Amino acid sequence: MRRLSTPVLLLLLPIALFLAFFHPAILDIGNAGWLLNGSDAGENALGAHAYWHDPAAGASLRTHLLNAPDGVSVLFTDSNPLVTLAAKPFAALLSADAQLVGPFILLCLMLQTLFAWLLLRRHAPGQMALWAGVALLAFPPTLFNRFVHANLMAHWLILAALWLFLEPERSRRLRWWAPLIAVATLIHSYLLIMVGAIWASTLLVRFADGERRAVLGQAAAILLLVALLARWLGVGGQVPAGNFGVFSMPLDALWNPAIAPFSNLLPAHETSPGRGFEGFQYLGAGGLLLVAFAVVVAWRRLPSRERERETVRRLRGLVPALVVLAILAIARLPLPPEVRALLDPVRASGRMFWPVGYVLVLMAVLTSFRLSAQRAGLALIGIVAIQVIDLAGMADAIRAQTQPAGAHRLYTRTRDPRWGALITGSRSIAFFPADVTRDLGLFQEIAWRAANAGRPVSNVYAARADRVTIRRAHAEAAAFARGQRVPGRLYVLLADMPLPAAMAARRRRIDGVVVILP
Predict the structure, then answer these.
(1) DSSP string over 34-81
(2) Which whole number is the average pLDDT over 25-54?
(3) What phi and psi values does residue 281 have, to the nearest 5 degrees?
(4) CA distance linking residue 208 with residue 202, whole number of Å
(5) Which of 223, 250, 366, 415 has the maximal Cβ count within 10 Å?
(6) What is the pLDDT of residue 18?
């Protein structure tokens, strides 16, 4: 029965959590309309969509259907480079309006369950305690908070790195670390930094043990691998945002839900704009109770098992990395511009605490395993129940945001049938002003239509702008102000953009949107 129950639970547990937090219609690959709502999730889907419809893109991980003619890497459209690339050979077989964001979220929950189970299976005193521990370790509130940045729901990369770190033989092998770091690089740079910190800790431990030549060789190989992948992803030439620390982790983040609906049991307040989301580290009432329970168990000096002692001994090697990550997550210091530019890759620094949070929960679960199978199981089941009660509001709030998927409607802002002929009859499309965040939902729908028609759009909402694009945008804005049109270009005007007199005769309004006909 145990052999049968394990794969069943590994499958059913993530599915149950998925259905609790998300509308099942997001699993429909041909259902993309729920994403085109002006969110970062919409940019994720749009970048992949443009790449799949760009016949010249090949394996470049870059599309010229957005930010034309310069093009943009799918990394900077907040798309998932790994998933986008893997699906490219099958693009012709996919729906014309395919999205893989929903299926990727479910895959992340499944892998999250698997690696939590791998971390705990040899320590649990019984099956009930094991699966309650898996639920607490695999599904913290921080994981579901990232649903608008689906790539960052790949927390399983952190758990996989912890699992490798705690495996004495596997942690020494390049053949285990190289694929994990490559996958992290191709999913999201923040996850690469976290996984890289755990990997670097294994090297530090081995270096201290005298394995210096092997350590230096592995370090050189991994750094070369990351550099080559970064080059492929188009990293280089981007303008730093220069706002490191703005999205840091509040000091009360572990017990502050920050967003009122995200907790039914504890009060929420946001200390400053943005930090309640990027700095969100709430453990949940159940998670906090778990930590308190572990402290009581440790205070009672119940004997630990040999495997727990070995795990704790190995986790001590992670302390330097966890301290650095925690400082990065919390720090809000007046830094020189040069230092802020250097720290730009981790400007949403509150995220850096995730590995610390996972290690904290892992240690608390392992400590609770010192009890007998029955006591540990009952205690952890009770803690899971508290967590479920506390996070029910969070699940409802997130599920409500994916509820539009049930309508299976692709366009909500551009429903006039004239849009199709207008875009197809254009050679290119441009938005003015160039800052499409003024109406990102409208941009996403029109750019989606343009990609379907193979028409390049000169704008993009990118995670980082590059200098070439900034110079081109200034030149195009100046030309537009002078009334100079690009032949065959459809212009879409956002907000109250002044219209040059020379273009007034070609002005039209469709679905309330002002356009200049080609």
Answers:
(1) GGTTTSHHHHHHHHHHHHHH-TT-TTSSEESSSSTTT-EEGGGGT--H
(2) 96
(3) -135, 25
(4) 10
(5) 366
(6) 98
Torsion sign across C-alpha atoms 170, 171, 173, 178: positive
500 token code pair: 């040059």
* Closest C-alpha to 465, from 435, 430, 432: 435
Neighbouring residues of 434: CB distance < 8 A, sequence distance ≥ 6: 458, 459, 473, 476, 477
274 pLDDT band, cuts 50/70/90, is low
Tell me the backbone φ, ψ of residue 72, rounded to 5 degrees.
-150, 145
Above 80 in pLDDT, residue 376? yes
DSSP states of 353-417? GHHHHHHHHHHHHHHHTTS-HHHHHHHHHHHHHHHHHHHHHHHHHHHHHHGGGGG--S-SS---T
Q: Looking at residue 273, what is its pLDDT?
A: 63
Question: How many CA atoms, within 13 angstroms, populate the side-chain half-sphere of residue 380?
Answer: 32
Sole residue written with tokens 């996984």: 195
Strands 62-63 and 72-73: antiparallel
d(CA 269, CA 47): 34
Question: What average pLDDT score do residues 88-107 get?
Answer: 95
Nearest to 462 by CA among 489, 439, 437: 437
- Integer Rg of the chain from CA: 25
Tokens encoding 478: 């100046």
Angle at 283 between CA 277 and CA 287, to 5 degrees: 165
The angle that helices 189-208 and 212-232 make with each other, rounded to 10 degrees, is: 170
Q: Which helix (H) or strand (E) holds 304?
A: none
| Amino acid found at 250 | P
- Answer for the pair 201, 317: CB distance below 8 angstroms, yes or no: yes
Please state, in angstroms and as integers, the Cα–Cα distance from residue 51 to each residue in 78, 240, 282, 402, following that order: 13, 25, 36, 24
d(CA 389, CA 373): 24
Q: What are the tens digits of pLDDT across the range 420-443? A: 999 999 999 999 999 999 999 999
Q: How many CB atoms lie within 10 A of CB 4?
A: 8
The 10s digit of each residue's pLDDT in 457-493 is 999 999 888 889 999 999 999 999 999 999 999 999 9
In this predicted structure, which of 151-165, 269-283, 317-331 has the lowest mean pLDDT?
Answer: 269-283
